[in-house]
Amino acid sequence: MGINLADQDKNTLRTAAYGAVSLMAAAGAAGSPHKVATQGSIALASATGPIGYVLAEKSRIKGLNGKSVAELADHVLPALTEAMSVLRKQDPAEADNFRGTVLVALDAGTRTDKNADSPVMTDMTRKITEALDAA
Q1: Which stretches of the chain are DSSP H helices?
Q2: Neighbours of 97 (CB within 10 A)
Q3: pLDDT per position as a tens digit, 24-38
Q4: How much is the pLDDT for 62?
Q5: Where are the domains of the chain?
C-alpha cells in the first residue's frame, strides 16, 4: 500500500519531525542547542522512502519559534501524534519508518550534546516517544 498525503498532512509530518528536533535543542539549551538541531536535522534529511521525500521538501515550517519550551511542546507533541495517526491509517510500515526516523534524529542530536544523558534530555525524549506512540 502506498501513501497519498494532502499538503496539510505533509506540513504536519514536517512540523512533527523538525519540531521534535527543535524541542530537544530547546531542552538541551544548557549544552549546545545548535549542535543538537544540526545533527538532528541532518538525520531527518537522510530519511528514505515516502517519508524521506516529505521531509526533504523545502517549505517553511510554522510554529517552531516558541517563546518557551512549553509553547513549542504545545505545538509539536500533538503534531507528532497526528502524524502517526495519519500514517497508520494509510500505511503502518511508513508510520514505523516515520517513528524510527524521528527517534534516530533525536539520538543523533543528543549524541553531540555534552548533556545527552541529562534528566531534562531523557524526559523530553520520553515525552516525544509518548506522543509518537499515542496514535
Answers
A1: 7-27, 33-45, 49-56, 69-90, 92-111, 119-133
A2: 18
A3: 988 875 567 888 888
A4: 82
A5: 7-56+67-133
Site of grid cell 530547546: 26
Please state the length of the chain.
135
CA distances (Å), 103 to each of 7, 67, 68, 111, 127, in order? 24, 24, 22, 12, 12
The three-point CA angle 12-22-93 to 5° equals 45
pLDDT band at 59 (very low <50, low <70, confident <90, very high): confident
For residue 131, give the amino acid letter: A
Q: Which helix (H) or strand (E) holds 94?
A: helix 92-111
Cβ contacts of 109 within 8 Å, gap of 6 or more: 21, 24, 25, 28, 35, 36, 37, 38, 39, 40, 43
